[in-house]
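Supplementary Text 2. Reproducibility record for the structural model of the 470-residue chain.

All settings were left at their defaults, and a single model was retained for analysis rather than an ensemble. We include the record here because the model underlies the residue-level annotations in Supplementary Table 4.
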Amino acid sequence: MKKKKIYFIGIKGVGMCAYAHICKAFGYAVSGSDTHEKFFTDEVLKRQHIVFFEGFKKSHITKDIDLIVVSQAYFRRDRGFVAENPEVKEALQKNIPLLLYPEAVAKLFNKCTGIAVCGSHGKTSTTSMLGEILKKSGMNTIALIGSEVLNWKSNALVSIQPDLKKSIHDPIFSDAQLEKVFFAIEADEYREAFLQYFPKITVLLNIDYDHPDYYKTKESYTRAFEKFVAQLQQPQLLITTQRIKISPQIKIIQPTPYAQPLSIPGDHYQNNAAHAAAAADAIGIPKEIIISALKAWRGVKRRFEIYGTYKGITLVDDYAHHPTEVASVANSLRSRGVDTQKTWIVFQSHTYTRTLELFDDFAKALSLFNHVVILKTYSSAREQTFLKNVLKSEKKKKQADGSGLAEVLTNAARKACSEKTAVFVSTHAQAESYLKKHIQKGNWVLTVGAGDGWKILEKLKNFKIAKLKN
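Retained model, structure tokens:
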């Protein structure tokens, strides 16, 4: 039988890459395209032998493609083109079936016994923990994660018993029901994307106001989670400690504290493990398997990921891009007994809207560190208009681009006669140059944020090896 072809526009996106992996595992012919910019997903796709083009051309869109999955970075139902993309235009002209990423994932997820992990923080780690538990238990498992899981060297997992897998024909296009397959997904609340999913179990970790570019109030943000929880299907299990409006038909399970050690220290990781363990327990996985799987869990990329120690300097990268998450990084350092006097954090905020809306909270979280380097805010092309036209005040522009954070931290240190330091830099090269002048043996250097600050660590590795021979 001829394989059906699925083409991914924006295939290097974290979720897109993971779903491409899952589709390939079910026997579909998978390919796609994206920009020339390099991401960790480049290597993930290559390891899965998924062919992709760098650059978008209408010639890539051939008539024999059965389905196109497109990233919302290029197309949305509510406004059409987000960015000009010749491949999307060609697909529409040729009337090739086209689904947005959340819609495409829902085609498979909603046929399975779906377990959705949602919340403002901890989704990636918790979903990966749950996926590892499901795999260890021998249950038929699909998992889709928002970063590369170190245990799997991928951000997706398909672990299904051979006999069952043989019986599953065309799961995306057909009406096949896959109740015997557990699908653990990181359910993203941005633009209410998770409302495409109808899980049987939902893990709600926390609700902490975010994405102010879409959710204009804290109340609207909370309502999105309430709407998602209302979509629970039988047996309608909700794993949470949060207080939200829910139907009386939904059964709430409160996780108990997880006391076993994990590979990554920090109270927030223990909390994530408690939620993953509660979900696993709810579907009957024995406690000893849960503990064994969590002990084996090594973490995910960009979540307190230790690059290594070079000539006595420890390099760490973390994706923390919300004030609560930045504070959690400080918690992880304290849990390791790290001297904050010897710690340098390079922080790059993500989006002007978030930085401006949560400015005071970011300043408070960053004040937990002694030496702070602020990179210019990592933003999308659509926000350039916001910065130029919406923000008329110079003060607000500084708050949005990150320079205002350095000013606030510096002024607070002067007022307190503290030796804390804070500096704003516009480029990676400036950050590297500054760090090279100040870091010493025994220091910890952390790049923190959802942008590309991690690239600085690659430069510092080479610098330390060459510079600190003595």
